[in-house]
Recover the amino acids of this structure.
């Protein structure tokens, strides 16, 4: 593992440095039109003392933690902009180098308080949904998984549709409000966390989704307060997601039977705040995701109420070194009709490692220059979520069962230009 | 002990002199920008991509220097970030699809030329750099 780690880290940093220095954020000409070209990439290693995490064989050390992105953009006129971004990743059993568009869109902003984006657009949800891959801009190698599960990136990163957005100053020096309202369609890759979970949803039971998609709409409102560096906000999203595929239970001679599922309640509430002053930054977010759906072609129902929050902070010690820490808290409540009517059971076992995951994290971030960063991060997790829900710990890569607690070391290098 | 104190005082004096010798940065704008005064908050908002207008409603376009003493001083005085963190903030806007990287130029003479010929442009240079054809905004 050590040799693999050293080679991968060295290779990752060499590539990062070479690419960043040589490309330097290029501007090219297409006819008379100037087009900016930018990109980013990361290479990481995760080692866990117990349990395999995020579909990787992390207990032996895994370097299947790579992503890259390429961005093209052009200011067509003062109020019109076109941009597109491609993205690809390998995260254990997910991604598997199947590239996709993060966005492709036209942005028309006739007024500061009124703009329109159309095409495939990144979704504004909480502080960091639309920038969760921007490793260079975050203190942490992994954002709090209670709020930003990297294995479920596809579920919230973008929608095909349109946004209305804008920023308006408030009177009496009360800061400004930035709003976004959107509507469209979400479609998850079959190489994302939920389809992967279903391939081994229970011993001997396999569901292979061919599509997982549906309409999505929502909004975000953030107040850039009169206190310099303080922003607070709220997001809300509603969805109606359907999954189509096939079911196989080899031991029962069941193969290729049509499977479908459909949500009939599917919403997210999200509150957040961030404070930045000089070298210090502090963030806190609270997110609740509720989904009630028909499964197995409406022969059963499944309800999941996931609640997560975190508090984080970072301090830049000097030009090169930043230290950070966060506490992330995650609970999942599942059930049947009683959950819908009454909320989580009064006798819910809050200490059950299945149904919770609390993560204490410490990080050191080294910024070599504006192009290259390196992070070393420790995670100390109590709990392992739920085996039948995509929250980081999958039975497919933990066939002997899950230990209650997991400690992880992450080393992640990244470049951007 | 006396020697250490003397060395310390010499170093402190050198630091003060170094600060005094640093570029004194001024904010310049295209004559189409109506405002003559800009607040620090507005300046910070425009140059971090959080705002595209000034308080008087003028739509502005930031022009950056790639590096140099004037750039460093501007970031320290008005943005509160070092260059790496500052560029990272702009790249987050870029990679989230919410904007583009502002025009970034290699010399202060180039900044003056672009600001002079671009409606709404706003930039920063050393006070001693020739800047005919642009207006200077007071920062308060």
């Amino acid at each position: 593992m050590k040799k693999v780690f050293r080679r991968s880290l060295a290779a990752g940093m060499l590539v990062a440095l070479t690419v960043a220095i040589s490309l330097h954020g290029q501007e090219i000409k297409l006819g008379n039109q100037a087009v900016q070209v930018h990109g980013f990439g990361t290479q990481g290693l995760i080692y866990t003392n117990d349990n395999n995490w995020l579909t990787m064989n992390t207990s032996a050390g895994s370097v299947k933690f790579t992503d890259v992105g390429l961005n093209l953009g052009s200011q067509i006129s003062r109020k019109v902009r076109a941009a597109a971004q491609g993205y690809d990743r390998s995260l254990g059993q997910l991604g598997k180098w199947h590239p996709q568009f993060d966005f492709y869109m036209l942005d028309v902003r006739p007024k500061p308080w009124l703009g329109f984006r159309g095409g495939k657009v990144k979704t504004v949800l909480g502080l960091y949904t639309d920038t969760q891959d921007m490793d260079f801009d975050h203190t942490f190698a992994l954002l709090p998984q209670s709020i930003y599960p990297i294995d479920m990136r596809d579920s919230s990163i973008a929608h095909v549709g349109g946004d209305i957005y804008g920023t308006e100053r408030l009177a009496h020096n009360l800061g400004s409000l930035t709003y976004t309202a959107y509507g469209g369609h979400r479609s998850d890759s079959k190489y994302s966390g939920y389809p992967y979970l279903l391939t081994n949803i229970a011993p001997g039971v396999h569901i292979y989704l061919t599509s997982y998609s549906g309409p999505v709409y929502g909004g975000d409102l953030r107040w850039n307060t009169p206190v310099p560096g303080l922003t607070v906000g709220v997001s809300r999203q509603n969805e109606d997601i359907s999954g189509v595929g096939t079911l196989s239970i080899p031991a029962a001679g069941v193969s290729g039977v049509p499977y479908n599922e459909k949500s009939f309640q599917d919403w997210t509430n999200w509150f957040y705040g961030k404070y930045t002053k000089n070298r210090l930054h502090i963030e806190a977010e609270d997110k609740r995701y509720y989904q009630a759906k028909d499964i197995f072609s409406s022969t059963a129902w499944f309800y999941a109420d996931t609640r997560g929050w975190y508090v984080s902070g970072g301090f830049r010690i000097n030009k090169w070194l930043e230290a950070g820490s966060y506490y992330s808290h995650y609970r999942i409540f599942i059930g049947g009709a009683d959950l819908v009517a009454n909320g989580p059971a009064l006798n819910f076992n809050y200490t059950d490692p299945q149904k919770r995951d609390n993560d204490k994290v410490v990080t050191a971030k080294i910024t070599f220059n504006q192009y290259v960063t390196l992070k070393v991060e420790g995670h100390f997790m109590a709990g392992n979520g739920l085996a039948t829900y995509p929250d980081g710990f999958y039975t497919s890569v933990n066939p002997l069962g899950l230990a209650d607690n997991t400690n992880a070391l992450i080393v992640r290098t990244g470049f951007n230009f | 002990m006396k020697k250490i104190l003397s060395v310390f005082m010499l170093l402190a004096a050198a630091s003060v002199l170094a600060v005094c010798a640093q570029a004194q940065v001024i904010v310049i704008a295209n004559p189409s920008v109506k405002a003559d005064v800009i607040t620090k908050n507005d300046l910070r908002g425009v140059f971090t991509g959080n705002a595209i207008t000034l308080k008087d409603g003028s739509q502005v376009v930031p022009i950056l220097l790639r590096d140099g003493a004037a750039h460093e001083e501007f970031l320290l005085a008005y943005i509160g970030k070092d260059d790496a963190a500052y560029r990272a903030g702009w790249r987050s806007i870029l990679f989230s699809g919410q904007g583009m990287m502002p025009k970034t130029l290699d010399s202060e003479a180039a900044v003056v030329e672009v600001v002079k010929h671009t409606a709404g442009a706003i930039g920063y240079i050393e006070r001693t750099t020739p800047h005919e054809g642009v207006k200077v905004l007071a920062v308060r």
